[in-house]
Amino acid sequence: MTLAEKHLITGGIGELSLRALAREIGVSQTAPYRHFKDKNALLAALATEGFRRFFIVCEASENEPRADLSLLMFGLAYVQFAKLHTEMFHLMFGPVLQPRNDYPELFAAGREAIYKVRSGVERGFKTDVIRQLDDVASMAHTVWAAVHGVATLMLDHGDTYGYHRDLDLQAEKSLRMMIAGLCTDPSDISKLPTAGTPAPTSAE
């Protein structure tokens, strides 16, 4: 798996090959098929591992008692993960592995990710920090879409998205403004300290 991830990082999704991996490892070209029925099965396993690592990065946000700060920390962790592990991020959330329910473990990991956002929104309702503008699922998907949009802009259009300031600063400003729109008291978000979510230093 480690070698496959190395190939993913250096060559991208299109260049990853089971046969090439077999040659590099020094086994027969059919050996990898004992573990993965095809390339997409290997990619699905890699993406599932990516979610596992992402969930570790998100632990700080889940342990934050304030729902608004928790959502901000989740968003920043998401953006930083995308920035530091771009190929893995594209694999996890991109169109290659569709339909997701063909890969049960990957599908379950994706569901777990959205449930983490949903849990934060529900906590915000219960503590009267987040306004209930719609049902929990709809609001959780709206938060997800906003966070994913910030990450994608940073990765694909950083030269225009953050042209006038540091990209990380712009990402935090964007997420703060989005969360302020959900808060019962929008001014509260401006009082929050800069989110101290430690950036992941490795994909390991």
TrEMBL record:
Q: Which InterPro entries match?
A: Homeodomain-like_sf (IPR009057), HTH-type_TetR-like_transc_reg (IPR050109), HTH_TetR (IPR001647), MT1864/Rv1816-like_C (IPR025996), Tet_transcr_reg_TetR-rel_C_sf (IPR036271)
Q: Which residues form a coiled coil?
A: none
What are the residue boundaries of the HTH tetR-type domain, all occurrences included?
1-54
Q: Does the keyword Transcription apply?
A: yes
User: Which species does the entry assign this protein to?
Assistant: Zhongshania borealis
Its recorded name reads: HTH tetR-type domain-containing protein
Q: Which domain of life is it from?
A: Bacteria
PANTHER family according to UniProt: HTH-TYPE TRANSCRIPTIONAL REGULATOR BETI, HTH-TYPE TRANSCRIPTIONAL REGULATOR RUTR
DNA-binding region positions on the chain: 17-36
